[in-house]
Amino acid sequence: MTMLLIVLLPFLAIGPVWFAARFSRNASFYVAATTTGLGLGLLASLVPEVMAGNVFVDSWPWIERIGLNIAFRMDGLAMLFCILILGIGLMVVIYAKFYLTEDDPIGPFYAMLMTFMGAMLGVVTSENLLLLAMFWELTSISSFLLIGYWRHLPAARQGARLALMITGSGGLFLLAGVLLLQEITGSLELSVVLASGPQILDHDLYWAALICVLMGAFTKSAQFPFHFWLPNAMTAPTPVSAYLHSATMVKAGVFLLARLHPAMSGSPEWFFLVTGAGLTTLAFAAYVALFKHDLKGLLAYSTISHLGIITACLGMSTKWATIAAVFHIMNHAAFKASLFMSAGIVDHECGTRDARLLSGLRHSMPITFGLATLGALAMGGAPFFNGFLSKEMFFKEAYTLSQAHPYWPDAEYWAWIFPVVATVGGLFSVAYSVRFIHDVFFGPEAHDLPKHPHDPPFGMWLPVAILVAVCVVVGVVPMYTAESFLYATASPVTGYDMPEALHLHWWHGLVPELYMTLVAIAAGIGVYTQWKKIAAIGDKLPTIVGKDFFESFIEMLIEGARALDRLVDNQSLQRYMAYTISFATLAGFMAYIEEGWQSGTGVQTPASLVSLVPVILLIAGAFMTDFFQRKRLVSLIFMSVVGLIVSLMFIYFSAPDLGLTQISVEVVTVLLLLLALFVLPQWNPVESGWLRRSRDILVAASAGIGVGALAWGVMTRQQQTIADYYLAESLPKGGGTNVVNVILVDFRGFDTMGEVSVLALASVGIIVMLTGKKPLYPNQVMPFPEERFPLMLTSVTRVLVPTALLVAFYIFMRGHNLPGGGFIAGLVAVVALAMQFVASGLDWTKGRFKLDLVRLSAIGVLLAVGTGLAAFVWGRPFLTSGMLHLHPPGIGEVHIASAMAFDTGVFLVVVGSLVLIIRRLSRYQQTMEVQDKAGGNE
Amino acid sequence: MTEPVFYHWMVAPVVIPLVAAMCCLLAGKSLLSVRRLLGLGGITASLAAAIYMFVMAWDGTIFTYGLGEWPMPYGIVFVLDRLSATMVLLTNVLALFAYLYGLSGDDEEGAFFHFLFLMQITGINGAFLTGDMFNLFVFFEILLLTAYVLAVYGGGADRLKGGMRYVFLNLIGSALFLIGVGVLYGITGTLNMADMAVKAAQVGPGDAMMLKAGAFLMMVVFSMKAAIFPLYFWLPKAYASVTAPVAAIYAIMTKVGVYALIRTTILIFGDDRGFVTGLLDDYLLPLALLTLVMGTIGVAAARSLRLMVAYMVIASVGTILVGVGLYTPDGLSGSLYYMVHSTLISAGLFLLADMILNERGGSKDRLEPGPVMPNIVLLGMTFMIAMIIAAGLPPMSGFLGKVFILSAAADTRWHELAWIVMLTGSFFTLVAAARAGSMLFWKTNTAPAGERTRAQRYLPVAGILLVLLLWVGFAGPISEHMDRTAAQAFETSNYIQAVMGGGQ
Hints:
Distance between the termini of chain A: 85 Å
Helix content of chain A: over 70%
Oligomer: heterodimer
Low-confidence stretches of chain B: none
Mean pLDDT of chain A: 84
Largest interface: A-B, 120 and 120 residues
Number of helices of chain A: 39
Largest sheet of chain A: 2 strands, antiparallel
Shape of chain A: elongated
Number of strands of chain B: 4
Largest sheet of chain B: 2 strands, antiparallel
Low-confidence stretches of chain A: 933-938
Radius of gyration of chain A: 43 Å
Radius of gyration of chain B: 22 Å
Strand order of the largest sheet of chain A: 1-2
Shape of chain B: globular
Structural class of chain A: mainly alpha
Strand content of chain A: under 5%
Structural class of chain B: mainly alpha
Distance between the termini of chain B: 13 Å
Helix content of chain B: over 70%
Mean pLDDT of chain B: 90
Strand content of chain B: under 5%
């Protein structure tokens, strides 16, 4: 529970610190400091037990199916990191209060810092590896926000993005690695994973898991070649650099290596990859650091270099190397945080942190000078400082390695490289440490600085002093201060395989590592005196700037994405249609490829000559429709021929009801299309070249052949279908002999209800689309005939209306038993009314036909739905049909089937919607006409 | 024989919004407040029904409801199992949030917003509930026609253009649907899905090709609705140009396609179905990965926020279908968890993009330096949280969903491929999200800003984010529910028994 609280506390403080900033900066600071202090207090309660070698694991189940538990583990390693995170965190919180100016919003800053603190505590205390990966990404996100804190600086934005991309992608690798470990060991719990070392090493997936985990660790800990995000992250406010980018977050990578050390080390892969990366990084970064003029840049590369030392130690993987790694983690955190804060003080007080401008500050800033010098001595590895001790251990191990190593049979020829690289790294480390102090604090006093330098307020140098004190005390009397602590913290990393005692001391006699140190110090000072000459050589060498490289890589990816996007998606509807139809055709042909062509075995009716003629006409009509596709009107006429012949065929095959439906639909459709053609250009210009047209022909033809083949396949088969039931039960159960109508209003009345809703929707759609719109091609539309309303047409149609409506009523009434019904009746009525628009014009008709058509459709749908709901009264399901037997006096018995009411609904919707659509299209036409006239007057 | 009990609430999610929609038409153009009340009432009542149905389906009972009381398989049937209950609930929750956002002004742009919105819900709810292939077509028509009209709602050349693509491509889809259903009916002689599953297993070798052709055509149709490569081109421009509440409700539309794919490929074209056994086992997952790749490329290439979110919808469909395409209960369960997440977060992002667009004045939602938004802190925070959720970063629902799918893919033949594509996709989404965020909120200029967002508009967005946070917090029990849901979906014999057994 305590562990959960330690992790949760900072998260809980996010809101309060932000909110408190509304009152005063101090309030926000106090909340942040108190939270951190409280965390330390809680941690302190666990320290004695952990020092005694106990391991605490607390677990709450969260998502069992993937083995994700909220589980925390407190052992020596976790404790070490918790102390770093909370201890240095407290220093940084204090320091930041003085560092940030009045213009910098402090609430969000502390809020983000708390987020980071919580996430980092989560990383180091997670018992569950997936939970660890989750906190891991959270540190990347909060680091992104903190680097971008000064959002007005372009470099800050870039640095933030860069850090997020590199560490974020590392997080994804880690996720994969963790899941692979789960696959290998069957568990995400560290207790299990740490105990399955041999099993992991022997597994086929070891390589993959190792690479993924190392990618996570190396990106986070800025190991070569992923180091370049760290210097660019230095645009963050200095407290952030001190905290995230030197003391804690970048240590998450080495933490991960240390954490998984017992489970994953012990293979040549581990040794070569980890040691290799570490050594490369430590030497390379130390070299680069010397030539950085920006103090924070220098410290950044120094950080990278020291992380390299830790990585190399973990890679060597011997007992003592591992202990050295852990020791160096804590030492580096202490001196580097103090140095960052010192650099921040210099920057804060002088207005610059360029080593070329700064000079002689020892006079104006004596306290800072003293503290920075002590810190730099620790960084350079001078005796009597903590940095010396761990570096000695590293040197010793590097030297030992050169004598013998199990993974390297020919060690005698190559192994000298370990101590040499280590010494070279140490040499540059000394050189840049000297430069850090000498350039800034010695020499003539600079006078052209942006600000007049002086020592900072007490609150700002106090954290530095505390950290420096730690460095010195540990350096001088390690056996009393650090030994037992190191023993407890290093034990989990070595897998509890520790030497009996550590015997930390700064004097071990005249041993090889001492000579290495002496060489490094002497040569380091020598190199410093010549650094400008060396820099001149370095400038001539070709350099690859990681950041630029990566930025252009990302730019390239984005541009590549755009190019590919344009290539696939050129915004052309024709192409989309080609894709779609081709894909569908391909899918259809897949069936053919997999199973081969299978024609049906049904008995085919021999074709009579009479039936052959219309078929030929139909085919001709279809061809003509395509052929005249550029002349829309002609094409439409041929299309109507096709429709007409289909209706005739229904009748020929004794399906009068279908024929009737088809022909009414045809008439109304053609009418609507004619109206629409009025507002469209009369013909299509040829827009596509022969290549694209051949493509289109190919696509259309293969799709057509495919559909034709399917139709043939279905029609040559006679399956038993549910239609048999409909035919049999139409009269007994549906109460009508017209099966089509019974299907429509009863068997599948629910479909019909849906379709009439679609019709009502369509009419509303027309209103929405045409309201307030202007025609797109006013100049290309069909010219109006001279004689708008021919007399003959006008007088005939007016007489026709009552007759047609009567016919509609007749068709409606007989619908349940003979061909007809609400749908067809509605269409007939529509045709009658539509003719009035055509013959007499919109105004005339509208004046005499004042129904609100939208409401009419709505009432129609509601009637259909209401019929369905009425069944509830009898306790039957929705749309169950029923009969009402009435005995009105004088007429006798009357059956009113509920289907009748339903059909009335259908009728109303058909009339309402279609007339509305026709009227709207006509009105749209009329607005054009008005425009034409207006245009003519100009 | 005992009288069967009819659970009339089964049709409530269809009938309630339909009646409310028609009443909106009756109310006419002038009575805005009446229409708003009808809309709110309709959606709330539908949501209540959905919640009730979800509770009823919780214990694993499969409810059927024969419309018109015709015996199976002759009549149309509604089927409620855990899967459809989950989808209906998701639809109505989303609808409420989107509608609330619409009430803050977008509904005044035309007289038919409320009507259309209600019809949209009618169509979607119906599509999730029906157990009949042709009835599914009918509900597809309702939801698509509504979507066409909503696409151009509010006017403007962009909307018309996007809307036209939507209409034309989906009309092809509808035609294919009819052809597909026609072929399947011609071979199996039935439209009822459960019955079709039974009949498909019995189809003889002489009809195998026809059956497969019909099945493949249906898959193309559903894939198109789900927006799978190469059939997603109707989506980006349309989604990026419509008004915010419409875009939000669109977020569920692709999931109708996904649902139809899940339902049919497991029930009708799943195990032991003769020649159509495991119809998409070899095809769906590669296509899903391709979709994920293309969607992510679109996300990276997008130059405006709404277009970026639209491509995120496509990428998320890819992710969902990776889980589905494994055809294991684990994979499906992960996909369902992810589907709810991705639907809600895309909707939330569309709403958020609208707020950002309005506050950025002339720069709109283009990913270029723009003015400092009046509400920059609050919007920035919300945007960041939403993007963390959407990009699949921990500890949010997108991350968990992806982990579910990743771990389901482990130990299958798709292991490496699926992992590499999904993780690389996550990386690019992360890059794009960081770029977009830093462009919109950090890289500012002095151009005049737009209007400050009304507090009312935050409500639905906050609601969506809250639901998603709960989605993480209760991920344990939720994922267990999804496990049960997936298991039930794979127990096709129970489904068939529930549908066919009751009526005979």
